[in-house]
Amino acid sequence: MQERPAGERLSGLRLARRLAWEALCQRLGSFRWEGLGARQLDQDGTLSVPYLGKPVVARAHDCSLRWVAGPLALLEEVLVVRYLAYAGPTNLAQSWLSFRDLPGGRGYFGPFSNRSTRILLRQFGQQPELFAAAAESLGGEPLEYGDRSYSFALLPLLPVAIVLYVGDDEFGPEATVLFDRSALQLLTTEDCAVAAQVVCSRLVRAASATWDRSNGKRRGSEL
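Request: output the structure for the sequence above.
Response:
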């Protein structure tokens, strides 16, 4: 995989969106959605699936998504619909692997880092408490890796973990994205890259909503 210009990526996303909705429509009527942690709401092909712990409603008859927590970017819509259209039931392995361990992950690691961990480090590299506040606001479950780490239930069978290592005088800060080992059978490596990008971007967006920079405390906390 190679980095593509922004215009080409947008065109590719629109094509991926159309193909994913077409594939999803073909699954309707015969697929057991419980295996993906989703459910069908009516006979017209309206589905509900948790996204970061809150339901997304996907309506196949007009190719629309509605998330109760707010609008979804095109990148997120494509990921959700591809999950419903292509993922198969699997058991979470309860063990983690890095992006480099996914097929083609080593060759795509530079672009992957640019869109995920480097964005994260600019915001949180020296601010672990800010990272923790943002992570908890997104429903992150704490893990015991690094200086701070959280697992996010992006989709029912697609958890994403973020590990933050705070920098010191000798070494700069680092961040690592981890995926459940079952991701090898669930979706493509590029889908996993998108999942990491989405979680990192939403963490950065959540930071300003959960942290008061004027006093260095979480909003609503006592002074």
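The chain is about 40% helix and 20% strand.
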